[in-house]
UniProtKB/TrEMBL annotation:
GO terms for molecular function: ATP binding; ATP hydrolysis activity. Keywords: ATP-binding, Nodulation, Nucleotide-binding, Transport. Residues 19-243 form the ABC transporter domain. The lineage of its organism: Bacteria, Pseudomonadati, Pseudomonadota, Alphaproteobacteria, Caulobacterales. It comes from Brevundimonas intermedia. It holds the Pfam family ABC_tran. InterPro entries: AAA+_ATPase (IPR003593), ABC_transporter-like_ATP-bd (IPR003439), ABC_transporter-like_CS (IPR017871), ABC_transporter_ATP-binding (IPR050763), P-loop_NTPase (IPR027417). This is ABC transporter ATP-binding protein. It comes from the Bacteria. Belongs to the ABC transporter superfamily.
Length: 315
């Protein structure tokens, strides 16, 4: 695995990691998904797990919160003395009661995770504030849009002031404004000393929110480190040139693209190349692309490209 250390300061070394998985083996029906899997999530950081469908991200989350037993290895949350109540889980499929309001849902969770009666009201208000849920806090959840449900779902996970927060696809189906609010809520939570394990396919959200990422494929960590450092390590100064067509390229155009080093995607409508001189190649091909009625674009590779690059290289 390639690993790059974080440039952000981690809380003092006396603070126990929020989560340690040490040489864990776990899976389903006798079939291991994780083998000899290790991961350390520091207090004060957002650590995002990225990977293609089926890579094992949710399995890591289930192991971390004790929903899936391990066959081998060690799992420790915080200093090991904390109970499950100090883990906040915002699951991908919202865990809210639809007939209750966000406030009532968050109150129920506060009770379940042992927030003292006298502290409950302040804890609920704080959790609703963190996700900006106030304006919809007293409407039944079943009447709320997906974005407000996501806010309420995260509030419920935050109300017990967890030492470990697990957020599974918190931005699925949300708009850019809500995404920003949820990112700020996670950052605020880790600033207060928690560790956050984030599982997300949302590359923009992860770039904005995570201190470190781990790229997972077939239950193995392929690389780990701060997002920009990993992008730099994988791609350097290269840019991604892509040509998008509305129908497969004519024979002549396909020859031009192939000669310029571009490869065709599975859908046969996109041609791509990663290179340092992407702008020059794009200019050279502009007339051919115009003739085909297509569009050419040059951009910096992102986290989706990193996952595809590392997963492809490891298969
Ligand atoms: N309850 C289950 N029973 C049997 N196999 C399972 C179960 N849950 C997951 N798996 C298998 O374990 C492997 C890892 O699945 P997991 O859900 O951890 O992947 P993931 O990275 O979270 O995927 P996605 O991005 O699609 O959510 C897959 O091969 C999946 O089919």
């Amino acid at each position: 695995m390639s690993a790059i250390s974080s440039s952000r300061p981690i809380l003092g070394s006396s603070v126990a990691p929020a989560l340690v998985l040490d040489r864990v083996e776990a899976g389903y029906d006798g079939r291991p998904v994780l083998r000899d899997f290790s991961l350390t999530l520091n207090a004060g950081e957002v650590y995002a797990l990225l990977g293609a469908n089926g890579a094992g991200k949710s399995t890591v989350a289930r192991v971390a919160c004790g929903l899936l037993p391990v066959r081998r290895g060690r799992v420790a949350v915080g200093d090991g003395t904390q109970t499950r109540a100090r883990i906040g889980l915002a699951p991908q499929d919202s865990a809210l009661f639809p007939a209750l309001s966000p406030r009532e849902n968050v109150e129920v969770t506060a009770r379940l995770c042992g927030v003292a009666r006298d502290d409950r009201r302040a804890a609920v208000d704080r959790a609703l504030d963190l996700t900006g849920c106030g304006p919809r806090a007293d409407q039944p959840v079943r009447t709320l849009s997906g974005g407000w449900r996501r806010r309420a779902n995260l509030s419920a996970a935050l109300v017990g002031q967890p030492r470990l927060l697990i957020a599974d696809e918190p931005t699925e189906g949300v708009d850019a404004g809500t995404r920003g609010v949820l990112s700020a809520a996670l950052r605020e939570t880790v600033k207060a000393g928690a560790g956050c394990l984030l599982i997300s396919h949302d590359a923009v959200f992860v770039s904005d929110t995570a201190d470190r990422i781990g790229v997972l494929a077939r239950g193995r960590l392929l690389a780990e480190g701060p997002p920009n450092a990993l992008l730099h390590q994988a791609f350097g100064a290269a840019r991604l040139l892509s040509i998008r067509l509305t129908r497969p390229a004519s024979e002549a155009a396909a020859q031009w693209f192939a000669q310029a080093g571009l490869t065709q995607a599975d859908d046969r409508l996109e041609w791509r190349r990663l290179c340092d001189d992407a702008l020059a190649v794009a200019q050279m091909l502009a007339a051919v692309v115009d003739g085909e009625g297509g569009e050419v674009a040059v951009r910096r590779p992102g986290l989706d490209d990193l996952v595809a690059h590392l997963s492809g290289a490891s298969s």
